[in-house]
Amino acid sequence: NHGFDCEPDWLLIGGLLFVPLTCPLLDEPRKALQDAGYFGLDTSVMNAALFFREKDDGSQIILMIDILASDITFGYGFRVMRMLDSLNGTSVKSMGHLLQMYRAEVGKVEASGSGSKGKGKGKGKGKGRSKGSRSYPDLDVGGSDGGSNGSSGGDDGTSFLKFIFRDSTRAPGSLCVVLETEGAIKSEPEFLRQHRIPSIASPSVVKAADALEAAAAEE
Question: What's the distance, CA 191 to chain centroid?
C-alpha cells in the first residue's frame, strides 16, 4: 500500500542527501535497513516520530539518509540516518524550507561575486581534499567547531553551511556537518552526473520552496 500513488521527495546539498521521514521508512525492518548499508535510525528520530503532529504549515521531520563521497564531504562518516535540526542557526521546518534557505545562501555567494574567484576547487592541490569543507573532530557525522550555531561565515568572509543534527546521546548542537557554500554549489553538477540524479531537488520540494519565497516576497 505504501507504494501506491506516491513519489519520492529528496534534496541534495553538497553531497548530503535529505528526505522527509515517512511511514514506509519507519515500517522498514531493521534488517532490511542494515542490508541496504544503514545501521538504522537514531533514537531521536523515533522519539520525534512518536510525538510528531502534522501542522497546517507543512512541517516535516527531515532526515539525512546519506553522505555522497566526494572532496567536499571528505572526512565525514555516515553510520545512521540523522534528523536535521537547523541550518546556520535557523530551525528547519520542512524540505521546502530547507531548499529556500539553501537558495538564500547561494544567492549571497553569487551576489558577493566569490564564485568567480576560484575558491574551493580542491583538486590538484596535492593535499587530497577540497577546501569545500573544514576538518572538524568526527563524531558519528562531524564534531562541533566550538563556534556559534548561527554562524555561516568565516573570518575571511567565506560563506559556510552549518547543518546541526539531533543526537539522543550528545549535547544539543554538538553533532554537525559544515560545508563551504561555494564548494557545495560547484559540486552539484558532478553529483548529479555521477549518481544519475535529475536535479538537486524533487519537483514537489521545488514547488514548496517557490511557494515559500513567493509568500515571503508579498510580506
Answer: 14
Burial of 56 by CB count in 10 Å (0-12 exposed, 13-18 middle, 19+ buried)? exposed
The set of long-range contacts for 39-43, using a CB threshold of 8 Å and a minimum separation of 24, is: 39/79, 39/80, 40/80, 40/81, 41/80, 41/81, 42/80, 42/81, 42/82, 42/83, 42/166, 42/167, 42/168, 43/168, 43/169
User: Cα–Cα distance between 80 and 99 in angstroms, integer?
Assistant: 23
Q: Residue 97 and residue 102: Cα distance in Å, rounded?
A: 9
Place of cell 504549515: 57
pTM: 0.77
Q: How many CB atoms neighbour CB 121 within 10 A?
A: 14
CA distance linking residue 120 with residue 172, whole number of Å? 29
Residue with C-alpha cell 576538518?
A: 135
Nearest to 78 by CA among 139, 22, 132: 139
Residue pair 137/175 in contact by the 8 Å Cβ criterion: no
Calpha distance 89→164 (Å, rounded): 8
Q: Would strands 90-91 and 11-13 be described as parallel, antiparallel, or unpaired?
A: unpaired
What does the angle CA 216 – CA 88 – CA 201 come to, to the nearest 5 degrees?
A: 65
Record the cell numbers describing residue 219, joined without a space: 510580506
pLDDT tens, residue by residue, 109-158: 999 875 444 444 433 333 333 344 433 333 345 544 433 445 466 666 78
For residue 10, is pLDDT > 80? Answer: yes
Do the strands 16-20 and 62-67 form a parallel or antiparallel pair, or are they unpaired?
antiparallel
Instruction: Name beta bridge partners: 13.
Output: 16
